[in-house]
């Protein structure tokens, strides 16, 4: 019987901003494909001289799906309409061959006009993913829950990127967030988090304890959701390091799958 493997994405920020800017994001396509990743996550903040069309062609040729991550906040403070740059960012994501655009929530309130958002999204083939970030406005359960309740009511093509580690920046429970928001999740960002001596929180590869937690969180989400590495991938042999982490994340959730079919 063939082993059950789930799709894994690599956020290119995992290789460190300096290296990624030096090499260019296109240079990682072959490495990710050889490591067994299913998706490559382009980081807008790390772009230098990449050619979007060439990137899209090469990624497709290597069998990689593409997601495009932007630091854009969907709802600017005090504004009822989405960020004016959203339309251009959707177009830029499409140019890279991305099927998904990941942004942050921003300052969502009852005054925000979801019909304006619906109009923008209907003009683009790119699906929108809204992530819990590390801010007060976009990294807490309550505003995200209000937003996705509205999305669901209005049947908008918007899903959630659930970043496991980011909840800690706002002292929120990832388990509670998964229970309340899990049905909206279409993309899982994985990172362990530790506090340095100076008090700063930093992302780390997972321990066995972290992996156990991630298994439980996946139980609140749709079966086989794509999970992404967003923690440091470092070492002399980046292919071996990446392959090991792809191997680990691809097997997360297998026990639930086996139980369901027992």
Automatic annotation (TrEMBL):
It comes from the Bacteria. InterPro entries: Xyl_isomerase-like_sf (IPR036237). Gene3D superfamilies: Divalent-metal-dependent TIM barrel enzymes. This is TIM barrel protein. It comes from Pseudomonas gingeri.
């Amino acid at each position: 019987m063939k082993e059950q493997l789930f799709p894994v994405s690599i956020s290119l920020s995992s290789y460190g901003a300096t290296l990624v800017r030096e090499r260019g994001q296109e240079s990682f396509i072959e490495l990710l494909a050889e490591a067994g990743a299913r998706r490559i996550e382009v980081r807008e903040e790390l772009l230098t001289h990449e050619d979007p069309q060439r990137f899209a062609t090469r990624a497709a040729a290597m069998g990689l799906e593409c997601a495009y991550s932007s630091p854009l906040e969907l709802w600017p403070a005090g504004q009822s309409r989405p960020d004016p740059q959203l339309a251009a960012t959707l177009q830029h994501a499409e140019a890279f061959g991305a099927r998904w655009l990941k942004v942050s929530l921003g300052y969502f309130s009852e005054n925000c006009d979801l019909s304006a958002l619906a109009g923008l999204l209907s003009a683009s083939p790119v699906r929108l993913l809204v992530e819990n970030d590390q801010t007060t406005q976009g990294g807490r359960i309550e505003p995200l829950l209000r937003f996705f309740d509205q999305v669901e009511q209005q049947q908008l093509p918007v899903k959630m990127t659930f970043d496991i580690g980011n909840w800690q920046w706002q002292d929120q429970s990832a388990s509670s967030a998964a229970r309340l928001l899990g049905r909206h999740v279409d993309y899982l960002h994985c990172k362990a988090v530790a506090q340095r001596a100076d008090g700063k929180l930093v992302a780390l590869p997972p321990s066995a304890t972290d992996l156990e937690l991630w298994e439980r969180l996946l139980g609140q989400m749709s079966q086989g959701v794509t999970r992404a590495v967003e923690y440091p991938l470092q070492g002399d042999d980046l292919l071996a390091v990446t392959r090991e982490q792809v191997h680990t994340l691809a097997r997360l959730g297998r026990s639930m799958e086996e139980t369901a079919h027992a």
